[in-house]
Each structure stands twice: as C-alpha cells, then as structure tokens.
Amino acid sequence: MNMSIQEFLQHMANGISLGSLYALIAIGYTMVYGILRLINFAHGDIFMLGTYLTFYGIIFTPIPWYIVFILAPALTGLLGLVLERLAYKPLRESPRITVLISAIGASFLLQNLGILVFGGRPKAFPTPAILEKVLNVGGVSIAIVNFVIPIVTVILLIGLNYVIQKTKTGMAMRALSKDYETASLMGININGIISITFFIGSFLAAMGGIMWGVKYPQLMPHMGVLPGLKCFIAAVIGGIGNITGAVLGGFILGLGEILLIAFLPTLTGYRDAFAFILLIVILLLKPTGLMGEKITEKV
Amino acid sequence: MLKVTNLHVSYGGIKALRGININIEENKIVTLIGANGAGKSSTLRAIMNLVKKDQGRVEYDGEDLTNLKTMDIVKKGIALSPEGRRVFANLTVEENLILGAYTREDRGEIKKDMEKVYALFPRLKERSWQKAGTLSGGEQQMLAVGRALMVRPKVLMLDEPSLGLAPLLVKDIFDIIKEIHSQGNTILLVEQNAKKALEIADYGYVLETGELVLEGPGQELLNNERVKEAYLGEAK
Ligand SMILES: Nc1ncnc2c1ncn2[C@@H]1O[C@H](COP(=O)(O)OP(=O)(O)OP(=O)(O)O)[C@@H](O)[C@H]1O
Ligand SMILES: [Mg+2]
After folding, report:
1. Ligand 1 atom 22: residue of nearest CA
2. Which residue of B lies nearest to A175 if distances are taken between CA atoms?
3. Within a domain: residue B59?
4. CA–centroid distance for B51 within its chain
5. How many domains does chain B have?
6. Range of the domain at A148
C-alpha cells in the first residue's frame, strides 16, 4: 500500500467530485422528506431522466451544450413537479404507506418508460471535449471535470441556501416542514410550495445526473437505482430533512467510497456495500443521523 | 360584517357544532365562551375552512367565503391565531412575523407593522433573531398574536390567547387586545377566562355542546345568572 502524494490528491479530487454529485441528489430526498415526510423513491429515476434529457438535448438539438446543461435540468424540474401532481398530490390525505407505494410504483413506471422510450441499450454520454481535458498541476493530473463539478456544486449550494434562508418562499418551505395548518393560516399556498420543492429537488438531481454522465459516460434506464439508493442513504446519514446534513452525507459517502478503493483495492468489489455499512454504523451511533435533530415540542 | 349562518361540523359522525349563528359587526370585540369541548375552536376552524363544514355559510362583507381555501380566506383579511401558539419553532421570531405578512406586498407598511408589533411586545424585539422554539411559553404566545397582527387582518380571531400565561401576562394580553381593537380592528375572541373576555367584549355568545344557548352584550352576560354560575364560578 504505497501511495504517492500525487496519487492521493488524485483520489481526493475524484472523491470530492463524486461526493458533490451525491450531495446534489441527496438534497432532493431530504427536501421532499422535510415537507411531505415522504421518501420519494422515484428520485433516482428523475436523475436518470435528467441525464437522458441532456443526452438528447446535445445530440438532437443545435443548442450549445452549456445551455443544454441548464435547460435539461429545468425541464427535469418540471417533470418532477408533474410527478408530484400525478402520483403524490391525489394521495395527500391518504396514509403514508399508500404514498410510499405510489412512489415505488412511479419509480418502476419511469424505469420501464425509459426502456420503452430511450431503449434498453446503453448510450454514451456526449461529454463536451473541453471537460475531458486533463490538467497537470505539479505532477498531479486531474481531469477538468473534477474541478468543474465541485465548483458548480458550490455555486448551486450557495444559491439554494439563499433561496431557503433569505426568500419568503424559503421561509414558507421551512414553515411547511413543521406545520401545514398554521402555514395555510399565513396564507401560504401549500400546493405551490410543494411544487417548488419538487422542482428544485429534481433540478439538482438532473445537475447531479449531468455530472454523473460526464464521469461515468454510460446511460441506461435503470442507471438511477443505485445512485438513488446511495443518495437516499447519504440523506439519512446526514439526518433526513436537514439539507446541510444531506450535503455532508453526500460528501462523506463519495469520499469514503473512493478512498476505500484507493487504500484497500482488494475491497473494490464491496464498493457499493460501503454505503450500507456506513449507514448501519452511523445509525447505531446516532439514530437521528449526523445533523438530524431530536423532535422536541414545547407544550 | 362577518356572518356565520347555520354552521354544522362533525368529526367522524360525531356532531361538534349544530347550527351556529354568529354575527360580528365591524370594529367590535365579540367573544365566544363555553366549556371545554363546547366547539369554540371548531367554530373558528370552520370559518377558516380548516375543518369541513357539513352545512352552513360564512359571509364577509356580503361575499361568500364558505368554500374558499384557507389561504384565500386569509387574503380576504381574516386571520386566526390558533389555539396552542403554533409558532414556527424552526424559524426566528422575525421570520415568524414576516410569514404573518406572507400575502402582503406593501413592504413599507409591513416594516411599520413589524415595528408596531415590537412596540406592543418589546420582549419580541430583544429576541428577534432567536429561534421561536427557544422562546418561553408566554413569549411564544405573544409571537402568535403578533404574527396574526402582521396579516393586518380586518377580522382577527384569537383562540385562547391567554392560555397558559401567568396572571400578569394575562392582563397584558387583554390590554393588548383592547389596544388592537382601538386601532380599528374587529376581533373575535375565544377564551377560557370568561370574565375577562366578557368585560372587554361588546357582544358575547355562549356555546354549550355545539349549540348557542345564550347571546347578548358583554355586560349583560356578565350579569346573567346562568353565566355567572356556569362560567364565572359565582354561586347563586
Ligand atoms: N380533529 C378532531 N377529531 C375528532 N374530534 C374532534 C376534533 N376536533 C375537535 N373534536 C371534538 O369536537 C368537540 C369540540 O371541540 P373544540 O376543539 O371545538 O372545543 P373547544 O370549545 O375549543 O374546547 P377547548 O376549550 O377545550 O379548547 C370536542 O368534543 C372535541 O373532542
Ligand atoms: Mg379550543
């Protein structure tokens, strides 16, 4: 196990960019959970849709790739919003388990729709040439994407933080996550806020999808399943419902996964199991997740 | 101006309200008193459409509100400060107040109203950056009332604003209700403290197991034998 500092830095860069995209996807789980107390099982498939939309946008339209990289997530955001209207909103008053089953159904539906519409054969993600360049910084060669991904992620996180902390819509989201009825007494449009939440979560998942496509350029209709599951775990590790926690969980998972294979290459086959083991360990130590708060109510 | 006619509400087949008629004139304080479980909160919640009405009609300035969504009723200028404070614990005091003004666009006026609320409750001003969940119970109650004022409602409905407060604070709350009223607001007040409520009310209704049994000017009810016995704890 001899690793040069250069190699280590390369792994770190790789881990940070994987962590970034996990973080972006995990946010969607945690936001929806925060507001609807629902685990949106179709979130991973929204991620998949976002990646395919980007693929088609680049291949079949004359729109420049950097515009597609914004348009496709926006479109995915709208699809997420429609998903909520069709699959979850009619069940707003139903028991939680019913909605959960609807979510699982929506997930299968999207995957199979994907096979039908996009085809089951893997497609190659058309990564723009400029992102494939490799930079050599002091003997450490790092792909440009590994710079771009964390930078874009940080920008998105700053934007999200602004929306949630500073705008009235963000305040309404936070209020809604605690008390629907009182929120409606403030004149808040509950359905509107829920739609915005789904839009943002799906937009960020599609951004993560693009990053995924750039790093692992193979698209398949069920490509969302495993990342979806891992990012759900990231959200739980961070404390589901807490956005900072989801980001933290995403980075821990991404970095941990990469460093695990870097330092213990014999365990490469267990890469995907790592997330689950980490989940179990963290939940044993802190059942509410890292940033999750105990629910206390003053009477 | 706010008129409730023949209001019926039931929960899973059990009748909670059976034909309530209430009329609230502009610029008046009207109170609704009754024992626990009489249906006071249900009446207010039905007006806001937080619970389904089996029957009945709610009218405001001649406009039918019966089937409007809660948020649209708020936009018409009717605010409810619900029973049990219900402040947003995860938001700061200031954010709670801003949300009170959620439907309003007049930034300058919102700022003024916020100052007004802070003038009424100086303790809130000192704690404007504190999370509402960390306030004491009494401070939360002040915040709940202040938040309802931020709606700048034409009709303010308060469900037990003095609940759980120390006697000194109860007095403060009633003083503030009078002050809000003197600023030109119409108030529908629900209170356990029937004596204090009737003292400041222009008109009162007495609710018993879902039905109105008595109504009249506040002073008149204060002197009514039946009210005295049942709600003011005075022997005959
Ligand atoms: N969500 C509900 N589900 C079932 N029953 C309810 C519900 N809310 C109220 N009730 C019942 O309706 C009746 C009236 O309740 P309500 O809360 O209106 O009384 P109240 O006059 O406000 O009482 P209190 O002074 O204790 O607040 C009670 O018998 C209560 O148990
Ligand atoms: Mg009550």
Report:
1. B41
2. B88
3. yes
4. 16
5. 2
6. 22-223
Name the residue in chain A with its Cα closest to that of B135: A298
B111 and B71 in a common domain: no
ipTM beyond 0.90? yes
- Asked whether residue A278 is assigned to any structural domain, the reply reads no
A218 — contact with chain B (CB < 8 Å)? no
The whole-model pTM stands at 0.92
Identify whether the C-beta of residue B76 lies closer than 8 Å to the C-beta of residue B60. yes
Q: CB–CB of A182 and B50 under 8 A? A: no
What's the confidence (pLDDT) of residue A232? Answer: 96
Together in a domain, B11 and B73 = yes
Using the beta-carbon criterion (under 8 Å), do B50 and A184 form an inter-chain contact? Answer: yes
B190 is a domain residue: yes
The residue range of the domain holding B4 is 1-77+155-161+186-236
Task: Give per-residue pLDDT as tens, A109-125.
Answer: 999 999 999 999 999 99
Q: How many residues does chain B have?
A: 236
Q: Is B71–A184 a contact, with Cβ atoms under 8 angstroms apart? A: yes
- B185/B77 Cα distance (integer angstroms): 11
Quick: pLDDT tens for A183-217: 999 999 999 999 999 999 999 999 999 999 999 98
Contact of B224 with chain A, judged by CB distance below 8 Å, is answered with no
Position A297 pLDDT exceeds 80: no
Q: Per the domain annotation, does A266 fall within a domain?
A: no
Identity of residue A25: I
Per the CB < 8 A criterion, the answer to whether A259 and A19 are in contact is no
Q: Does A195 map to a domain?
A: yes
The answer to whether the CB of B194 is under 6 A from ligand 1 is: no
Is A286 part of any domain? no
Q: What is the 3-state secondary structure (H, E, C) of chain A?
A: CCCCHHHHHHHHHHHHHHHHHHHHHHHHHHHHHHHHCCCCCCHHHHHHHHHHHHHHHHHHCCCCHHHHHHHHHHHHHHHHHHHHHHHHHHHCCCCHHHHHHHHHHHHHHHHHHHHHHHCCCCEECCCCHHHHCEEEECCEEEECHHHHHHHHHHHHHHHHHHHHHHCHHHHHHHHHCCCHHHHHHCCCCHHHHHHHHHHHHHHHHHHHHHHHHHHCCEECCCCCHHHHHHHHHHHHHHCCCCHHHHHHHHHHHHHHHHHHHHHCHHHHHHHHHHHHHHHHHHHHHCCCCCCCCCCCCCC
